[in-house]
Amino acid sequence: MALRARALYDFRSENPGEISLREHEVLSLCSEQDIEGWLEGVNSRGDRGLFPASYVQVIRAPAAEPPPPARYANLPAGGFEPLPPPAAAFKPAAQQQPPPAAAPEPFALPAAAGFPFPPAPYGGSYQPSQGSDDDWDDDWDDSSTVADEPGALGSSYPDYEAAGGAASGRYRLSTRSELSLGSRGAGGHPPGHPHPPGGGGPGPKSSATVSRNLNRFSTFVKSGGEAFVLGEASGFVKDGDKLCVVLGPRGPEWQENPYPFQCSIEDPTKQTKFKGMKSYIAYKLVPSHTGQQVHRRYKHFDWLYGRLAEKFPVISVPHLPEKQATGRFEEDFISKRRKGLAWWMDHMCSHPVLAQCDAFQHFLTCPSTDEKAWKQGKRKAEKDEMVGANFFLTISVPTGPGASLDLQEVESQVDGFKAFTKKMDESVLQLNHTANEFARKQVTGFKKEYQKVGHSFKCLSQAFELDQQAFSAGLNQAIAFTAEAYDTIGDLFADQPRQDLDPVMDLLALYQGHLANFPDIIHVQKGALTKVKESKRHVEEGKMELQKAEGIQERCNIISFATLAEINHFHKIRVRDFKSQMQHFLQQQILFFQKVTQKLEEALHKYDNV
């Protein structure tokens, strides 16, 4: 007979491939074998898809013996390593059967662990370069780990940590105590698996926990935002790692960098190694707060970007200029990349949080010739514990009366910013296409057309020169000069995009990267708001203690403060950049047409003495 199951709880699908269930609904199962806590079947409405195995009870025939478990029977051999069989704790209490006395524990949990599995690490879209022109070389990297060596990547800029010993300036933050059941679930469910409502089985209503996102690949989950909101983050935070959000005239803002600085990128030079077998371009960096120049390759920028994108899930880390497989040593490409890196560096130095990050300071200040110091700092950055859910522990927000945010107003502001970024992204793409097309016409079409006019005037003057009359010599010379003027104007048109349109397109490319970052940032904040709404609903239904719901709201408040601070910083820097760039564009346009006018006036004066 066909396998059937009865739904024990309501379940609402949130992702493609899932189906919704209603309590007491009877479903047809495609297979009784679950894969990592999920079953496939057809509900009473004829929808086919996946649903949590712990939400249903298989209906078995009275005389039929259940077949032996055979997980992953439908997968090719060798495709996956078999996982431990699902524990009884994954099912509601009504289904659990006491194991034999000699049966081993289904999960051997380490006694020191605060929860069965660590929070999911951040898995952003950044991927390290593979086989690019700037792959890591042995002289700047090795397989050893020196993260624990003293002095590696110390907070030297500025020195926030007190000098009273290793423990000074450090404090432990934990969100687990507020949700003692949150880390495992009331029914003992390990994180990362679906929880039945109320913790699975009979028990007090106050033991309900906020459910986890079923899509474990969402940004909210991978960034650690979910683990933080559910109270599973715990770690030691140094004073120098604290990221302060303050209330400014426009709302939440990142606290300004007390030591602002800039960094120039100059003199890209081609260098070689391995007796000329390996070539690369090195850029000279001169930070204003040290005055000491260092040289960095593109691969070092690429490494830094990867570390920052991993560490800061609610901060828009500017994108680097694109890689290029061929033509890396051509002058035009080197110049374009240097300008793109200059814009990138300006945005890094202008951000109150990114500018003070230890990894960025190590990148700017570590001497180019000190390979050991570079490796120590690099390994230290890669061993940073304040990533994922623990990153949110470092955010310090205003406290006291009136400091709490109205989450409904926050949601409205974020929705408004989401609409703004969508419209801005469309406008940036349109402007970039228009500017690129216009520049192409100036370099090729306009130059060709103006020089064609000049050539026609030149042919006319050559025809007039066949007349040997003395009184026509002045006219011939004037027409010849006019031909030269139009030829020069054609060259001016071809060169002009470098002066005005190219800088605009460089800026647009940088902001396209920012606009690509914000959907993930908004997703983290939206995910936190969803958990708050769910916890409030549990409180109203009497399924959750008020204290637990307040803890979730407090942690969502932290994410909301950080998100609004980043939005305000984006608007602030956007106004600064586009004001400056539009002024530069119009000034260059004026200078260009003044040069054109000057050439035409010179040609006009040639006819005064004819």
TrEMBL record:
GO terms for biological process: cleavage furrow formation; endocytosis; endosomal transport; mitotic cell cycle; plasma membrane tubulation; protein transport. Residues 104-115 have a biased composition (Low complexity). Its main location: membrane. It comes from the Eukaryota. Residues 83-161, 177-210 are annotated as: Disordered. InterPro entries: AH/BAR_dom_sf (IPR027267), PX_dom (IPR001683), PX_dom_sf (IPR036871), SH3-like_dom_sf (IPR036028), SH3_domain (IPR001452), SNX18_PX (IPR035703), SNX18_SH3 (IPR035557), Snx9_fam (IPR014536). Belongs to the sorting nexin family. Residues 261-371 form the PX domain. Residues 1-61 form the SH3 domain. One of its GO terms (molecular function) is phosphatidylinositol binding. GO terms for cellular component: cytoplasmic vesicle membrane; plasma membrane. Pfam families: BAR_3_WASP_bdg, PX, SH3_9. It is found in: Cytoplasmic vesicle membrane. A 1,2-diacyl-sn-glycero-3-phospho-(1D-myo-inositol-4,5-bisphosphate) binds at residues 297, 299, 337. This is SNX18 protein. Residues 132-142 have a biased composition (Acidic residues). Keywords: Cell cycle, Cell division, Cytoplasmic vesicle, Endocytosis, Membrane, Mitosis, Protein transport, SH3 domain, Transport. The keyword Ribonucleoprotein does not apply. CDD domains: BAR_SNX18, PX_SNX18, SH3_SNX18. It comes from Pterocles burchelli. It is a peripheral membrane protein.
